[in-house]
Amino acid sequence: MSATPAATGRDLRHSGSEIIRASAGQSDDALRDRLDEGFRQMAAAIGAIVVDLGELDRRQGFRAEGATSIQAWAVERYGVSTATARALTRVGEKAWDLPHLVESLCAGDLSFDKIRTIAGVATSETDQQLRDQAKERSVRELADVARTVAATMASSGAARAGGSESDGRFLRFNDQVRTMTVQLPAESYAETRNCLESRARNVPTDGETPWDQRLCDGFLELIRGSATPGAGDPASSSNPNLVVVHVPLAALVDDSIEPNEFAGELERDGLIDCETVQRIACDATIAVAVDDDVGHTMYEGRARRFPSDAQRREVMRRDRHCRFPGCTNVTFTNVHHIVPWAPAGRTDLDNLALTCLHHHHVVHSDGWSMSGNANEELHFVGPTGRAMVSRPSLRWTRVAAGRGSGSPIS
User: Fold this and answer.
1) Quick one: which of 309, 310, 286 has its CA closest to 296?
2) Which of 39, 298, 327, 408 is 20 to 30 A from 17, alpha carbon to alpha carbon?
3) Residues of the chain with pLDDT under 70
């Protein structure tokens, strides 16, 4: 089912420029024919990948390389995005129950986008019916079908379980793009919307501020208004929210720094300038982490086992999530030594790494090793002999590189 040069009319051994010139020399009809065959072969290849991922998942064959899920394993091993791996593995999980949809995908009759749109709501009983609908409908139309089926399944499932609509409530954060996703029961949704819209209407505006921005301002006003210090707090008149800003010492003592220069980093967000530092200082408790000349904090060489709070914050800032290759776990993580600590040993930043509970256990298991400098590269070798490399977050490395060269960070 995999594409071959003969099948697609392309010799993949040729250079990129030769392939481009060959395509440019084709007629419109020939290009359309080649694209028809190329998309059919792509669907067939994805179908084979989906089936194999589902089988490897069923066998738990990804665990030999330390991964916690087939999705995380695919991200690390093949360099695909989390979204791509999630889409492929979710269909793979259901492949055994959906032979008709899988057959059409592997034959190149249906695109993967159509399959993944309805796979989540498809069952062995509806497999053939949904396959037939997919051949006649667009992806957008299939999304409407999937939503309708999902709503029907949810209501009937809740009725059978004796549950309520509130059981489906959730709120999730995405730190990468600073977004929140929330789902509420109908009455809570109406209450929340009315509250925010009422506040948004009262937000001062010159008539140019978009409505969605005013809603955001109303939301922040609600959050800030509800934050009250605990009883007996000596700083009861101040805002209790803690903001950690990493800045070089020069940004605090050198008046010659231009206001628009990047002065540091707002923890868990991004690079900020002097003006931003001064603005947020008016509204929050500030913890200032003074960095060295290349942007690193806490080379203390402490003869103590546990890292300080400042070191923990710096490790989180540097690693962002578990350092095991392919693992994006943020919630259940802790700071651990790379070289095991001994009395009078080092608890410095380069010997500390953020690992989740699962991978902390993995790297201390027989057959596994972790070595290297956490500020540069960590090397993981598992029982299969496969070596994997983990590096600090690009943002942390970028701050260090910018300060080390003496040039502004952009």
Assistant:
1) 310
2) 39
3) 1-13, 155-166, 203-207, 226-305, 341-346, 366, 399-410
Q: What is the pLDDT of residue 8?
A: 45
CA distances from 63 to 59, 96, 123, 327, 335 (A): 9, 21, 28, 13, 23
